[in-house]
Amino acid sequence: MTAVVDAAADPAAGSGHPVRSPRNGRGRRVLLLVSFLAPALVVLGALVVYPIVYTLIRSFYGVHGEFTGWDNYVRMFTNQSTFTAIRNNIMWVIVAPITCTVLGLIFAVLLEKLKWKTAFKLIIFMPMAISMLAAGVIFRGMFQENPNLGVVNAVLVGVNDAFSAQASYPGARPRDGFGIIEDKGVVAAEHEVAAGSVQDFPLVGVKQSAVPDTAEQAAAAPAAKPDQITGTVFLDVVPGGGGTQGQIGDGKKGLPGIRVDAVAPDGSVKGYATTGAGGTFTIEGLAAGQSYRVALPASNFAQGFQGVSWLSPALINVVIILSYVWIWAGFAMVMIASGLSAMDRSLQEASRIDGANEWQVFTRITAPLLSPVLIVVFVTLIINVLKIFDLVYVIPPGESKPAANVIAVEMWTVSFGGGNDQGLGSALAILLLILVLPSMIINVRRFREERSR
User: Fold this and answer.
1) 190 and 182 in contact (C-beta within 8 Å)?
2) Which whole number is the average pLDDT over 351-362?
3) Are residues 98 and 137 in the same domain?
4) Which of 52, 228, 288, 409 is the 20 to 30 A CA-CA neighbour of 103?
5) How far is Cα 22 from Cα 206, in angstroms, rounded to an integer?
């Protein structure tokens, strides 16, 4: 009877199966969990935790391994190059993420309106397939100052030449022995001429490639009226040889677009004209009988507009940030477009029915609903720009590198780029980690909030 009661109280006792303790089951689950997590924890510790701890310890040691305490951190914040790097990183954080996010939002909204959205998305996202190193090489080549090498300055020079009335003939000089002299870049008649006279300017030293396509056969200037001075500015060279020096003849080109001044004895310019396609000019409105010195200003023979020095210290950061935006705007567009595709469109349609225009729908409905995605994209780009290295290392030429310096490049330079000071480099790495951590924490919290909804 007692055995029956015991069996009823404990069914497992009479079943013939061993009794499992709850503690044994919990221990097996913990062991199984550890066996799955252990490889990941080992890799995480070896690749993340150990480098951080070692870098922190190394930051308290000097070049030769001697303990220096906080000296590396003091040096870091009293070094001018570090201040420049921190200032540039602040500029990057303010400009690049905002620009990429705004452009990504604009592109994502445009995708909704375009019929050829696939091609548009491909064009914008394609730079993401290019490595940062290759993108840096591309942009450095595009923004070369020499318009024969840099496509951007080539376009600017072409536009300037198309809308500029004055031509440029660098290297031009007068033909000797014909009463024309050169003084500090100004080509002028050796003697004054009276109004009503003709003054020609035979020039040499002009490359055939510098002669505009609009240049025509040099023509003799018409006879001057009493209040005029006329003449011809021409290239006193016949391709292949021939012709009479100092005289207009067949095969000699007029030089259009040259300014010609009539300078009074007191040095004031009393009139000027610009040569036409055949090189002829007519200066009008002069005092009859008055003598003038006819001169071609030095600006005619300057190099002319050769573009903008994009890779100079003043503009190098603009070029680098532009290259970054070119690459990462596609990432922002794809992320925001995915948020748009998951949005409830009924709110937008309801607002349109209530009379809202497209701008009001965008600012009061679309943008607020996209704010979680926009924040994630913005914070991700902040983390990315704080660690920017490739573009800053590749694009600037030697004289512009100090002006474009950022923390990651400074860390590499003092550690491996000639400084060989791993202690100071480790201190810079810790500074970079401290700057990145807040953004990482914000992103992790956002992901947790999204997952808990």
Assistant:
1) no
2) 84
3) yes
4) 409
5) 99
Last residue of a domain, one of 279, 301, 323: 301
Residue 86 in contact with residue 405, Cβ under 8 Å?
no
8 Å CB contact between 335 and 443: no
Residue type, 200: D
* CA proximity to 60, closest of 425, 436, 435: 425
* C-alpha 318, offset from chain centre: 5
pTM: 0.73
- Look-up of token digits 């992320």: 335
Range(s) of the domain holding residue 47: 2-58
- pLDDT tens-digit profile of 369-385? 888 889 889 989 998 99
Q: Do 215 and 135 share a structural domain?
A: no
Same domain, 403 and 319: yes
Count of residues making up the chain: 453
Say if residues 233 and 198 touch (Cβ distance below 8 Å).
no
Q: Does residue 63 belong to any structural domain of this protein?
A: no
Q: Please name the residues in contact with 398: beta carbons below 8 A apart, sequence gap of 6 or more.
A: none
Both 313 and 446 in one domain: the answer is yes
Max avg pLDDT among 5-14, 218-227, 339-348, 444-453: 218-227
Give DSSP secondary structure letters for 233-293: EEE---TTS-S-TTS--TTPBB-TT-EEEEE-TTS-EEEEEE--TTSEEEE-SPPTT-EEE
Among the candidates 267, 301, 335, a domain finishes at 301
Q: Any idea what the Cα angle at residue 292 is, between residues 289 and 297, rounded to 5°?
A: 155
Query: First vs last Cα of the chain: how many Å apart?
Result: 58
